[in-house]
Amino acid sequence: MTFETVSTNRSHGGTQGVYKHASSATGTEMTFSVFVPDHAPGTKLPVVWYLSGLTCTHANVTDKGEFRAICAELGIIFVAPDTSPRGEGVADDADAAYDFGLGAGFYVNATQEPFAAHYRMRDYIEQELPALVAANFPVDMARQGITGHSMGGHGALTIALRNPDRFKSTSAFAPIVSPTNCPWGHKALGGYLGDDRAGWAEYDACALIEGGARLPDLLVDQGDADNFLVEQLKPELLQAACDAAGQKLTLRMQPGYDHSYYFISTFMADHLRWHAERLG
Amino acid sequence: MTFETVSTNRSHGGTQGVYKHASSATGTEMTFSVFVPDHAPGTKLPVVWYLSGLTCTHANVTDKGEFRAICAELGIIFVAPDTSPRGEGVADDADAAYDFGLGAGFYVNATQEPFAAHYRMRDYIEQELPALVAANFPVDMARQGITGHSMGGHGALTIALRNPDRFKSTSAFAPIVSPTNCPWGHKALGGYLGDDRAGWAEYDACALIEGGARLPDLLVDQGDADNFLVEQLKPELLQAACDAAGQKLTLRMQPGYDHSYYFISTFMADHLRWHAERLG
Question: What ipTM was assigned to the predicted interfaces of this complex?
């Protein structure tokens, strides 16, 4: 498992790095970013995984997420992967739409051609990248948290719900809470997994909770001026699923906030403090 | 003096706006951004002007500057203009180089053709934009500070030194302190102002200080891993000019930091606190 350093920059009393490697999960080169606060030699730090939304690479949150100051203060490593495989030979949406294909991997293992060859973001985020990060960065893998935005909020919730032993803390910014119940999800899960919806449930946070998956608690922030709120995001479905299941959830509607990094960056420090309390 | 709203987004308990207007100074359309923290109706807030460096528009600091949280905390309005005129008919560097022409106005009023027609960034920043902002935003023009990065640090220092009554606080990130004494400056001032260096002094912070200009104090942060430190930025020239003149200067060399927004964003909150102390 080798990787290559694309860049490192000193920032906020730590090192912001960008790295790339040949991924066996996706069969492509994958790029990710890691922020490591200064720390005593030999010590290991808790890690928060941040999964990005549609159209993003690692770069969007790395540029606009405003996570470094608070990560340095709290002593948290912050990892930001890409959102899909990329490169020659990687299939895209037939119309190159923003909501499927490149930049829109939805954190699933695709079963449908021509996507099954490379779109294996579930394996990448659940297996390959954690192993690579654990082997090469000073992370305490017993103290992991996960968060994400929109499609990445969907990724964070579903990955944590399927792997409750791995994560001590889970939060999301404006997540897609039930791809089974929104147009983005219909297109993505239909395209990657096929029309048999039985296979969709493991990629639907509400369905996972309804099926018995549990986490200690969840934090979700959602802007009430978000253009995607009503048709795609539907936090009320997550609230209902959590209420019915007795799953603890803090859902905060944020007045006036939209779906952009202006929203994410505003509540990033809150989320990281919340993770730090649970990661110890 | 009319202007048009390009976008507004709620962020960090305030409003981040982007605006454009037909500039009489440059004869072009100009775009700028303004962050206004929430405030009591009818109150006016101090304002800090941020001048960007080579290649930038208003967007770089607006995306990456990490100023909103601290501006909201301190109650400061933050204005970020563009770095040059743009659009059809605006002359560029003959080779489209990054260090002259578009994105590189150097905050001067050009006297040389073909630049004199539009490259009037001094008038724009000193006269036209302040009048527009004062008329349309809740700014207390008796409480203005100015800062900037690299070419914009040069802009901030020279504009403040020429207008000491306007600014209560002046700082800079990795500024060009003496364009008369570096390649970027030779190219820019030669190209915009011509070869007669007598006309350059009013655009050279060190020369202005040597010529008697004074400010209450100056704060400058400079990364010691900045690729442009030795050949272009030369903070030792500013230190020497200030020492010789008795001009108060806090010059902080920041170990390991480079010339990027990773550096700027790290020290942005420090600078804004420093401005707030002086703006009241």
Answer: 0.95
